[in-house]
Design brief:
The chain is mostly beta strands and 417 residues long. The protein has a 17-stranded mixed sheet that branches. A 5-stranded mixed sheet has the order 19-25-24-21-22, with no helix packed on it. The termini are far apart.
């Protein structure tokens, strides 16, 4: 056996070749495995650290360009795009393209879009969101809505990016507000659309192909066939006089008391639309008079509590202008039993067809002359020039204190024929 071990010869060349071949193949395989692992790790790192940047470009575009409810009153429902179900609205909802909003009787909703546009959806309205988008490169912002039925008030802020726009459509007209600030109202009833623009400008086209353009304080009606009526000038906005804002009017017996509402006459107004409500949304008005001729109104038997009121002027053709800013007063129980305010008048001396009515009452009192509301100065004085009719007539001056007491003076005058 020792001799056998001592007779070892050199390893055959073929064995060396096989050994080196196997060794290099193993190295190649190992290198491939290492490279594969490195690629997998690198791809995982890329997904972890690079993909979110892609999402930041796209995903915030959809969430940041949505609309949301600011306020919800009463029965308001939402049907999400692609769904057949109406769900109750809530302020956590995000409204996107093709979502529908529906308000019930005595209900309303305020919706704010990502571009700052605000839409106040009135009762019995169907409101559709058609577009909410922003170009990530140009930053152009576009919002589009469709009012299928009912009334919607809108406010659109000014935008500084060219190409940004807000589009408002109805079944018979499509309008666009470009970069300017705008405020107005759209009403869809009986298939016809009434557009009223209080501020700004808007361009549009009817379903019959007619072009239209509205500026500040202008309106237009488009009939159910898409035919545009004449452009009209809207009546001015009334100035509320009495009660003063946040007035607390105390009556010993509110159920039998009379509260006077008064406002300044609007030139060209043939009537006024007067709304009084327990809420600033005016969804369930306790007073809704659309053809009130005078510039004052006496409300008898108001319950104890707070009331909001506002007035819009209506011209001879029935065109209604913008409402005044709402004012609030409070009716409470207590105070003196209808103590009349002091009321004094200077002598009335007609000069042709005019006469100066000058005098004084208590500060805070409401005053009318021949049923026309007159502003009382902070010191209680008043001074008004009236136009007279030919012949003999009577001038009636009436003052109502904050507690409901009434003072009245009547003076006869004669104007030349």
């Amino acid at each position: 056996m020792a001799a056998d071990r001592g007779n070892k010869g050199p390893r055959p060349r073929t064995d060396l070749v096989e050994w080196f071949t196997v060794s290099y193949r193993t190295l190649y395989i190992a290198a491939a495995v290492v490279l594969g692992l490195a690629a997998a790790v690198g791809y995982g790192y890329y997904r972890k650290h690079r993909l979110p940047s892609v999402v930041v470009v796209e995903t915030p575009g959809s969430s940041a360009t949505a609309a949301q409810f600011v306020s919800i009153e009463g029965s308001v429902q939402v049907k999400v795009a692609g769904s057949l179900r109406w769900d109750g609205a809530n302020k956590t909802m995000v409204l996107n393209k093709a979502d529908l909003v529906r308000t019930g009787a005595g209900s309303s909703a305020e919706i704010r879009f990502f571009n700052g546009a605000v839409f106040r959806v009135r009762p019995d309205c169907v409101f559709i969101i058609e577009e909410t988008s922003e170009d990530p490169t140009s930053k152009q912002r576009r919002a589009a809505v469709k009012i299928q039925s009912g009334e919607v008030n809108f406010q659109v802020p000014q935008r500084n990016v060219p190409g940004s726009a807000t589009t408002i459509s109805t079944p018979t007209v499509r309008t666009t507000i470009a970069a300017n600030e705008a405020e107005g109202r759209v009403n869809v009833a009986g298939g016809a659309s009434t557009l009223s623009l209080f501020r700004g400008s808007m361009e549009g086209q009817t379903s019959a192909g007619e072009r239209l353009s509205l500026g500040a304080n202008e309106g237009m009606k488009v009939d159910a066939q898409g035919r545009a009526g004449p452009k009209v000038t809207l009546p001015g906005v009334p100035t509320l006089i009495a009660p003063p804002p946040q007035a607390d009017i105390a009556y010993p017996n509110p159920a039998e008391a009379t509260t006077l509402l008064a406002w300044k006459a609007v030139p060209g107004a043939a009537a006024y639309h007067v709304l009084v409500d327990l809420s600033a949304s005016f969804n369930r008005p306790v007073v809704d008079r659309k053809e009130w001729k005078a510039v004052s109104m006496e409300l008898r038997g108001l319950e104890v509590g707070g009331f909001f009121w506002k007035v819009a002027a209506v011209d001879k053709d029935g065109t209604e202008g913008n409402f005044s800013e709402p004012s609030r007063f409070v009716v409470s129980q207590g105070g003196p039993v209808g103590v009349p305010p002091p009321l004094s008048l200077d002598p009335l001396t007609p000069r042709g067809r005019t006469v100066q009515v000058k005098g004084r009452t208590e500060a805070g009192a409401s005053l009318t002359i021949n049923d026309q509301a007159i502003q009382v100065r902070p010191d209680g004085s008043f001074n008004e020039i009236l136009t007279l009719n030919p012949g003999r007539q009577e001038i009636v001056v009436r003052a109502v204190s904050a507690g409901g007491g009434v003072a009245e003076q009547r003076r006869p005058v004669v104007a030349p024929d």
